[in-house]
Records
---
Amino acid sequence: YAGVETVGNHNLSAEEMKALLEKHGLQAVSAHVPISAMESDLDSVIAFHKAIGNHTLVVPFLAPDDRAKDAAGWTALGQRLDAIGQRCRAAGMRLLYHNHAFEMESIEGKLAIDWLMEGASAANVGFEVDLAWVVRGEQDGVKMLQTYAGRCPRVHCKDLAPAGQNEDQMGFADVGHGTLDWSALLPAAKAAGAEWYIVEHDLPKEPLHSIRRSYDFLQEQLG
């Protein structure tokens, strides 16, 4: 692995985090940061990530109470993100939104993610497409990437196990060892502007074994 997407600071200062990354020869390519942290103290968030060499911030998740019930609510969320993204862009940073399955629900004739993205400008808010959650949400990963081509500099690569398997791992699988069609998804991700393919598994039984298998598969596919 050449890069890593961080989640939290693990009680490290920016200097300590940077030293740890350098020790392992890793580049911080993006970071998951709660929307609450960005809205309460964006300047500090930006300063930390600039210090570790990261220039891409990602809103990773919405708590159930923050999930809109109608199109207007999702559009308003997009507008909130746009305001954050505008400040990020002015500081030389980039803001993305990461999906789960709940944004794949149809609301008033469109998917929730579509309302959200329409509420934000492409210049200020990009999309970190999590392909497994798109498919679990019963949508087409290739079509999603095509819809948001040019807004997808980061793509989450994880896989879904066949129905009834890996239930102790939330039904997820190592990349290339599940049911997703990577022969179609990877070219679509590249065409959509993916700069980094981020391996993820929410609950692996053997984390090191999992990241090795996923790396080997993607290395074989991507070269």
---
Amino acid sequence: MIQKIKPILGSFFYAGFLPNAPGTWGSFFALFPIYFVGVYAPWYGMALLALLCSLITIWVSEECERVWGGDPSPLVMDEFAGQSMAFIAIPFSGVISYDIMLLVTGFFIFRFFDIKKPLGVDELQQLPGGLGILIDDLLAGFYAFLCLKIILFLI
């Protein structure tokens, strides 16, 4: 039973099976819980969300690789973890227009770093198992976080 749940969680409830760019879909659907946590949770809520998604990714990755092959594209929980990392310590205001702008900006910056894999992101993907699947997304999320902090400082 538990083995059947792992691919469901890993694909973020089948978001990873949407056509064309499953990682982008996973990152997009992650924005909804990220918004909720950013607005309604205490200051450490986003860190807990990123940690939870990271632990889930590591836990499900072996079964997902067994079912779908190495670093499988339907496995998008790692994108959820990385996208969450991009918003750690980023203040949400509760003003919808501002928060949507923040989410959209963070989404595109994260996707840039996740797809292009610059500055060491690609090398980390070579690590074995769930850690290799996860760590490149966390670093992409960290780079997106730094960019968001700079943007927020400048505006």
---
Amino acid sequence: MRLRLGTLVLSLAALAGSPGHGAEPQSLPFKPSPVPGGVAVVALPAKATAPAVTYRGEPVITRRSSQGWVAVVGIPLSAKPGEQALEVDGRGVPFAIKAKHYPEQRVHVEDQRKVTPNAEDEARIAREQVLMAPVWKAWPEALIPSLSFRQPTPGALTASFGMRRIFNGVPRSPHSGLDIRSPQGQAVRAPAPGRVVLTGDFFYSGNAVFIAHGEGVVSLLCHLSKITVKEGQVLQAGDVVGEVGKTGRATGPHLHWSLSLNNARVDPRIFLGGHP
């Protein structure tokens, strides 16, 4: 059964949310952007308790609003424009995704193996993907994200989220994060409170730290020269997690920051006052 509630991407003037399900409504600290790689805010049927919401089989954040409840939905880059549907307590609630064009980026990488991995590299990448897959879905019950973030390190924003990347003439996956040009060794800090759920040296990401902020909100900070935190460590916003580097597939020192909601990578600029 589908509830014809229409597309309900709300302005902050009309929308209110709360960090805790039992708290009073409060304004969400970002502007919704219902495009591939963006975040939609969808009004839900009014009820006393938080509804159970999923999108593409993944649980979705809910917040109280002045009129009931809303869902805060991460939209993957692969999503097609047009009508989509949330599953809300077993019923379909529609919302619309708008079209978004992302520019092309051509990159030259010295190490050709980072573009066309050999068989040994492919086996390593497959192992790492298995390791990372559940991390993107981390949902620590004790953590309730505020959805307010700070830039993890100072620097100019360079390669933008969503760019269609071509490495050494070979098309590859769109850019799933935000690059910040910073000097080697500069401190990298937690963009919001959370818990370190995975660290390691990965083929593409290099030295990387995954932080679960709660309710399926996860940050990846990578290409680090040094990692200074351990798995399981609880962080406050601004705590140092490592230092800027150029490990993995990188053309120079910078920080790559990916941000994920309901297992969909979204543009971090949304939460820094920008728009995808």
